[in-house]
Amino acid sequence: MMKRALISVFHKEGIVEFASQLRDLGWEIISTGGTFKILQEAGIEVIEVEDVTKFPEILDGRVKTLNPYIHGGLLYRRDDENHIKTIKDMEINPIDIVVNNLYPFEETIKRQGVTHEEIIENIDIGGPSMIRAAAKNYNDVTVIVDPKDYDIVLKELKESNTTTIKTRQYLARKVFNYTAYYDTLISNYFNEIEEVKFPEKLTLAYKTKEELRYGENPHQGAAFYKEIGKTEGTIAGAVQIHGKELSFNNINDANGAIDALKVFNEPTVVAVKHANPCGIGSGNDLSEAYEKAYECDKESIFGGIVAANREIDEEVAKRLNSIFIEIVIAPSFTEKAIEILTEKKNIRILEIKDILDRKYKELDMKKVIGGLLVQDRDTVLLKEELQVATKRNPTEGEMEDLLFAWKAAKAVKSNGVVIVKNKGTIGIGLGEVNRSWAVKNAIDRAGENIQGGVLASDGFFPFKDSIELLNEAGIKAIIQPGGSIKDKEVIEEADKNNMTMIFTGIRHFKH
Fold this sequence. Notes:
By secondary structure, the protein is of the alpha/beta class. It has 3 domains: 4-194, 3-Layer(aba) Sandwich (Rossmann fold), CATH 3.40.50.1380; 239-351, AICAR transformylase, duplication domain (Cytidine Deaminase, domain 2), CATH 3.40.140; 387-503, Cytidine Deaminase, domain 2 (3-Layer(aba) Sandwich), CATH 3.40.140.20. The protein has helices at 15-24, 33-41, 49-53, 68-75, 81-89, 105-110, 116-121, 126-136, 150-160, 165-193, 248-261, 286-296, 314-321, 335-341, 396-409, 435-446, 465-473, 487-496; strands at residues 4-9, 28-31, 47-48, 97-101, 142-144, 206-212, 222-227, 239-242, 268-273, 276-282, 305-308, 327-330, 348-351, 364-368, 371-375, 387-388, 417-420, 425-429, 454-457, 477-480, 500-503. A 6-stranded mixed β-sheet has the order 8-13-12-11-9-10. A 6-stranded mixed β-sheet has the order 16-21-20-19-17-18, sandwiched between helices. The longest helix has 29 residues, at 165-193. The protein is elongated, with a radius of gyration of 31 Å.
């Protein structure tokens, strides 16, 4: 009996060539709808599926392959005598190859102006049923969902008129990945229209952007996946203009720089090292902003990442080129800037046109051993009116710097504090288990430049010791969440030293 292949694909690239070679190898081909028409027009002998099912396509194509003559031919075990007898008695012919890819649900939901009805009609039913059946019976059936695999299958068929069990298992694995991804997109769509943020069962859909050389350390394997949907303004949507491929740490650090940058509207530069800011500056132009970010920590910026929210021009490019920078990120670059920056072969240049875009629906996720923590992204800077908790009110200049410092503190790892002067960080203390240690580090890093500076803390002060340290160093204005049981003691210490302290009523822990 001539072996049979069932071919029904939405994405038809390479299918005529594949089917033609299959026919040359003596295979009989069954097909449906548009695929049948294309193969027939190409002069390939093909049987229409309803001639096999003995039943026409109905309900506008919703039912065409859901039939025992199809699924029986796919699912019966070739080594089971009872299965063989049943198939023979029912006059069902074997189907040994299935080639299928599904209705374009992903492309449909991305389309501007698409209706709910159009989306529903692009939920494939027959396709997933058919390829899952074939994949379940991979011991006997070859199933292809990716055109990249056509050549692998043809090569083996030409050599032995069959495929190896290793190849069939590989193809089955791809099917179940494919259908799981497809169903996840559908479930996520329904979660969205039902406004369900945390569903009873959580499934995630990501696509490989690239395999990485290694993870955080050389002994760790890694890959970079991108979310489905909006990626503009993110590292996943960046266009690399120059340099070798990004590493795991490059991507993580770059994401931290972009995330920190998104809270600033004025010309701003963020310098990052090991996923933490080592300098943030805002100014009238990007050159002034870069100078402030650079001056905060001239050593740590070396080998770091610099992200800017304005076009990088020749002047800024020259200053960047005076030290070693791993990655430069900006919404655009002048031709001269690119010419200057590319003088260094090891630098990576990333263009993210919508770098200030803040309209993201995705959740924040952190993997833990045996589980996954899921939360809203921390996108709310302030949620209530600021409260001046002390007797002294801030000056206009202090208030401007306090708000800048609050934005900067949101970007550092907890416990984190930031000392700011003239819209530029001058001392950053971060990642400490004791808040007073973070304060000490920030004071030390600010050095003699600390006079006239202000401080922001991502969490409240549990004791007055940090206030004592700040007063001794010359800091007279502080912004913090408030909410400690020791708030009264902390406020009294500030009042005693004629300091101003503002409570925000919101914290920004970052772990």
